[in-house]
Specification:
Length: 504
Amino acid sequence: MKGNRILYFLLLLAGFLSAGCKNVLDIDSTRTVGEKNMWNTLEDTRAALLGTYSLTRAALVDNNAFWIYGDVRTGEFSSPTRQDLKAVINNDLNASYPVLDAMSNWRRWYAVINSANIFLERVRDVKIADPRYTENNMTVDIAQIRFLRAFAYFYMVRIWGDVPFIITSHDGSFENKPREDKDKVMVWAEQEILKAAADLPYKYSANDIQQPGRYYNEDENRWNGVLARKLTAYAILTHIAAWQGNYPEVAAYSKFVVDNYNKGGNSYISTDELCSSGGFFNAKKYNHLFGFNFDYGHQDGSFTGHLEELTLAEPVVNKSLPDIFMTKDSILSIFNEENDERFHLDTLGRPGVERYFSNFNGKYPIFSKVKVIMDGTTDPSFRLFASAVVFTRLEDITLLRAEALAVLGENQGAIDNLNTIRQLRKLKAYDAVVNGDLLSAIFHERQRELMGEGHRWYDLVRYNRLRPRNQKFIDLIARNGIYWPLSTTILGQNPALQQNSYWK
């Protein structure tokens, strides 16, 4: 019954994705008739809540967008055959390919936002109608929905810059809306997540003061790593502040995560755990500070919507060529320190470990850090993947903290946080003589540690804002070329919109 209600909710929201486009969002604003019967019971709020999470996951993985936005666009990977990916690598984002057009369309993100708006407007109807739906349950639900809505706006601002700002749902036709200034949207998102954080627990169904008792009558294991928690909120606040260049707040928000991660069941993870087929990216875990799992046991694996679709090939899976790969020279320039548990060469020039890369001496080194085939098997005859998409983890926040402290001139604190990760991967402590400039060393470590996790493009933007030495990239920032163009479909639907200036 629970699964049927969630499916019903997703089908209800599917109308917003597939119907005719009459307004700014490419979403049919006329609600399905059945929605009026939706907001009556506790089961309805659960279905709507989990449905909003599902829509967020779909927005991230559709067309492998999360990794193409964050990893492919950097140009550090190459594509042997796919012309659409070559266009992304070359920053030719106006090229005429279906994938690029889909990724220039914010339709899926506004489906998340509209779902959240409807929830916030209707949830109190359930509180009135169903005595089982407690005040605390409603408070925690509202906090999660506000968080998801704010996260959606944060994510869109990083992709498109200025975006239409809508925080109410819409019955029937409504006025086309222009884009709102990106800085204002980010300030709003930060404040929304701060408000949500106050009501979010460290854990669910674990007698947390913010959420006592069994959440939706399920035990702690059911919600382990599935829902937004207090640490999730502060981790995303860290990212928001970093994108804004507000490093005092990056330091403050990241300190909350680093000081309190034990309360949320989080820990630093070993390299084996990070790279094992049955490890960090398999199933759901508290160490996913914010992530979306695919449960193979619940028939939730898929051929698409996973990093493995782009990166894996023989000998890891039965596929002749990867869609993207990293050249040997690039690998060696990045993994240039001995004994790195992620990847290094031994004294004879052979791979000392192959956790991040397989087939190094073949024509196409295979980026195999993430390789969750089915439920964690290593059988290459299957290409059905079930890896989680993880937006952030403790190691990411620790390195963002190191970045902030370095910018603020607190060098010893920055070094301590950098060394936490370096020593975790069996590297020697940071040495300015060996590793160079502290800030550059921190970004280098982020490149290694978070490779394939959707961060690199945004890291490059931040680094070039802090160290404006690459004139081509500085011009890209100055002319708003760091943002994606808007789909012609969206522009055709709403005359109040204008194309991003760089792409006119």
